[in-house]
Amino acid sequence: MSQSNGRPPGRGPSGVRHRGAVTLRNQAIPTSTADQRLLDSRGRGDWKTRDAWRALRILSEFVEGFDTLADLPPAVSVFGSARSKPDSVECRLAEELGGALARAGYAVITGGGPGVMEAANRGANGAGGLSVGLGIELPFEQGINDWVDLAIDFRYFFARKTMFVKYAQAFVVLPGGFGTMDELFEALTLVQTGKVTRFPVVLMGVDYWRGLLDWLRDSMTAEGKIGPNDLDLICLTDDVNEAVRHIVEAEAVLSAEQEAIREEAVARLGADQQAAAEAAPDGPAEQG
């Protein structure tokens, strides 16, 4: 058996992988991830003995995430490519965005990795904001970048994706690959179906996203696969101030709507109580 045990060299910093309290190095690092072992149908033979225990591990990831992030201030999740170079347009934009969000009072949540994620965390950190990284176990460990103040490492994508949405008031999506597209369309689906309310989705990188938006309009919308107003769920801009303003205004509108709903509910309850008191047998005597 070779020294690499069949694995590509250079996996993570010095060949290190962290699993909560456990640290793995070199040949102790497994060749597959927890997600892969859960989802690979070829391993069904052991489901009776292993999947029940996996359910407890999955539950523990949700508990850890909920407990750690429960006191997070208003936050925005920022997505983009881990492969982007530090001097790329999108990384410079992400760093500026992270700083602007922090100054507007938002924590910045990323996947905690390099590229666009690191740039956004750096911007938030440099502006004095809270910088959060939600890492994921991958075949090639990336590690949490140095600009993250609060980090959680997840085994399972679906647990991690829940945290991105549950603790964010908006998504900002910069140029990226499959993972970025996955987060983008999941967010759009949740908003479209009403699973989350008034959740702003901002695309930054007009030139990068224009072709996709043209296709959504000319193919999806034209053929009735999405509604004519569904593209209104997306704000496309290269202006950091416009992106932050869009998020702040959407939050203000939602807060006003929720306050109006509460006031209406209180008024309705008061009216119902008054009507019940007047209709009761021992209610106020009739005046004659």
Number of helices: 8
Q: Which class of secondary structure composition applies to the elements? A: alpha/beta
Strand order of the largest sheet: 6-5-4-3-7-8-9
**Percent range for β-strand residues:** 5-15%
Contiguous low-pLDDT stretches (5 residues minimum) are: 1-14
User: Whole-Å distance between the termini?
Assistant: 103 Å
Largest sheet: 7 strands, parallel
Shape: globular
Write the element-wise H/E pattern from the N-terminal end onward.
Answer: EEHHEHEHEEHEHEHEH
State Rg.
Answer: 24 Å
> In which range does the helix fraction lie?
40-55%
Quaternary class: single chain
Tally of DSSP β-strands: 9
Brief summary of the model shown:
The chain is of the alpha/beta class and 288 residues long. Helix content is 47%, strand content 14%.
Task: Write structural notes for this entry.
The structure is a single chain. With 288 residues, the chain is an alpha/beta fold. The chain is 47% helix and 14% strand. It is built from 8 helices and 9 strands. Strands 6-5-4-3-7-8-9 form a 7-stranded parallel β-sheet, sandwiched between helices.
List the SSEs and their pairings.
Layout: E1 16-19, E2 22-25, H1 34-39, H2 47-69, E3 75-79, H3 89-103, E4 107-110, H4 116-126, E5 131-136, E6 150-154, H5 157-166, E7 170-173, H6 178-192, E8 201-204, H7 206-221, E9 234-237, H8 240-279
Parallel strand pairs: 3-4, 3-7, 4-5, 5-6, 7-8, 8-9
Antiparallel strand pairs: 1-2
Helix pairs in contact: 3-4, 3-8
Notable characteristics:
seven-stranded parallel β-sheet; globular; disordered N terminus; alpha/beta; 8 helices; 288 residues; two-stranded antiparallel ribbon
